[in-house]
Amino acid sequence: MSDVVLETRNLVKHFPVNQGIVVKSKVGAVRAVDGVDLQLRRGETLGVVGESGCGKSTLAKLLVGLEKPTSGSIMVRGQDMVRLRGGDLRRARRNIQMVLQDPYTSLNPRMTVGDIIGEPFEIHPEVVPRGKRQQAVQDLLDTVGLNPDHISRYPHQFSGGQRQRIGIARALALKPEIIVCDEPVSALDVSIQAQVINLLERLQDDFGLSYIFIAHDLSVVRHIADRVAVMYLGKIVEQGHDVAIYDQPTHPYTQALLSAVPVPDPRLRGRRDQIVLEGDVPSPADPPSGCRFRTRCWKAQHICAEQEPQLLIRERSPHPSACHFAEIRRIR
Amino acid sequence: MTDIQASMDVLPGLDPRAPLLQINDLHVEFRTRDGVAKAVNGASFRLSPGETLAILGESGCGKSVTAQAIMGILESPPGHITRGEVRYRGVDLLKLPEHERRKVRANKIAMIFQDALSALNPVYTVGFQLAELFRAHRGMSRADAKNRAIGLLDQVRIPAARARINDYPHQFSGGMRQRVMIAMALALDPEVLIADEPTTALDVTVQAQIMSLLAELQRQRNMGLILITHDMGVVADVADRISVMYAGRVIEEAPVYDIYARPAHPYTRALLESIPRLDLKGHQLTAIRGLPPVLTDIPSGCAFNPRCRYAKDPCLQDPPPPAYAIAPHRTARCHFFREVLGE
Prior knowledge:
The structure holds 2 protein chains of 2 kinds.
Chain A: E1 4-19, E2 25-41, E3 45-49, H1 56-64, E4 71-76, E5 79-80, H2 86-93, E6 96-99, H3 113-123, H4 133-143, H5 160-172, E7 178-182, H6 190-207, E8 210-215, H7 218-224, E9 227-232, E10 235-241, H8 242-247, H9 252-260, H10 302-306, E11 312-314, E12 317-321
Parallel strand pairs in A: 3-8, 3-9, 6-7, 7-8
Antiparallel strand pairs in A: 1-2, 1-4, 4-5, 9-10, 11-12
Helix pairs in contact in A: 3-4, 3-5, 4-5, 5-6
Chain B: H1 3-8, E1 21-32, E2 35-47, E3 52-56, H2 63-71, E4 79-88, E5 91-92, H3 98-104, E6 109-112, H4 116-119, H5 126-138, H6 142-155, H7 161-164, H8 174-186, E7 192-196, H9 204-221, E8 224-229, H10 232-238, E9 241-246, E10 249-255, H11 256-261, H12 266-273, H13 313-316, E11 324-327, E12 330-332, H14 337-341
Protein name (chain B): ABC transporter ATP-binding protein
GO molecular function (chain B): ATP binding
Keywords (chain B): ATP-binding, Cell membrane, Membrane, Nucleotide-binding, Transport
């Protein structure tokens, strides 16, 4: 397993809920990420899908070190990012970078594109010597398909798709092995989405990058991901190769999620296998006992409230699924 | 019935046999410091009772501005309707004085928005805001209006409606808030509902709930529904007809089955091809090159010509391509539609 570049073990992030203005006391916790194990191999794309509030963005922040986990470990090339300090941590963080969702708010409007993409070199001066930085930034602009002469322009002079390319160039600056993409195309129009997805795939081939690709759009994830993890309320409920998840889902939540995605083909209207779930996602501050999906699940039995199902390969699930009654059901 | 309801019937020129809603050659521009942005440049649609028309397009194509112009809620200045007609049952709404126009809004044509949290008033309870409609438009008593409000929340399947009418908008989840807004739009039994990206802010499982609710309410009431969206999946699920907009023009109009099977405009075709599909896994997506036009500087001729792989000389020349009738109920604004259709 030497080609594993990133591995998390029982990763947990709880945000405390405090009460009181002068004397604060902790009255509970939002369990945003609650025991996540995942592995990312070299050159691979792991898609993470789930609805809002499932903890996928918190997971992204934990991976790049923007949030400190409550417990658990994040192993990158054999080093535990959670335990590293000082210069060791700084060097390790070069290896795992991030592309953010909103290209409008994630770029400082008062910095030029050259300053934005060059900022990682200021923080990690050992990567590129000062004299060569402008050339490095122009090379990066060229790599992501922008005009290198636009180095002194400001973000507002670019369109949404071009800004996302700037964000990607910034993530590439330190030559990382791993890029965490948090909803990188969901703010973009359809015609522009395809350009950015193609760019990400080309960069992966050129530089041997590994991606964690977080998105709520299942068709985009299906296109780009080699393996997929489905999250619900802070936990991974099903994990496997893209074909396994999309063609042979065994967890009821994955099945409902897949069936809810509208298909751009009117001939399938009324002939699709539609599972309409009741209600909303429960609050992660007070998740249901046992299986967290049981309050919306049509298969729920007594055991689901009492015993939490583990993410395991099961008799009727050839890939890991966290459901006592996991069973393949082809959607549509 | 109050005076507002009674005077509805004397709306001058109202003809019950005329089309429910017909928009002819609508032009809207925004006069800004940076120049005149031409948001809508001759849009035409028709809507019949019980029909779902999808207006499909990317950001900046003029789909929301068109809806605002129909509703009469366009911010002016900077927005100006420079030409065109919005006919409801034969009456041109754009020529009506504001006090007549108010009778149509909510009573006959209602609208729901993408972001329910900002569309609802945060300082009043949901029950108050619903009841207010009946009190203002129907002159009902407080108690009657409250009961109607509860009935409406029941209809849009909000659990425990009687208790929840005392809640404020922020106490509802995103999906439930969208239901409240649908209830509010349907309160006065409109004949036309305009839904502007009603599920864009919602998760897919909640989106499925809301779309099936909308479809059911539409069927019960035989309402005309205009669905404004950029999501080609949602459109394929619910629409009867589609109008695709680009740079303020309807560049293709067709029944839903035809447009997905055989698009006639290069832009529609490119949009459909840029969606990730199962059989394209591991291949490059067909991206549309370039960017949508800046509305203050729309290219001459066909606005799509700089991005189009079929473009030839005539496409660069004004006037822009006319709406060629390519089949019954089907038009496309492309000189080379035969080539695009693959004939």
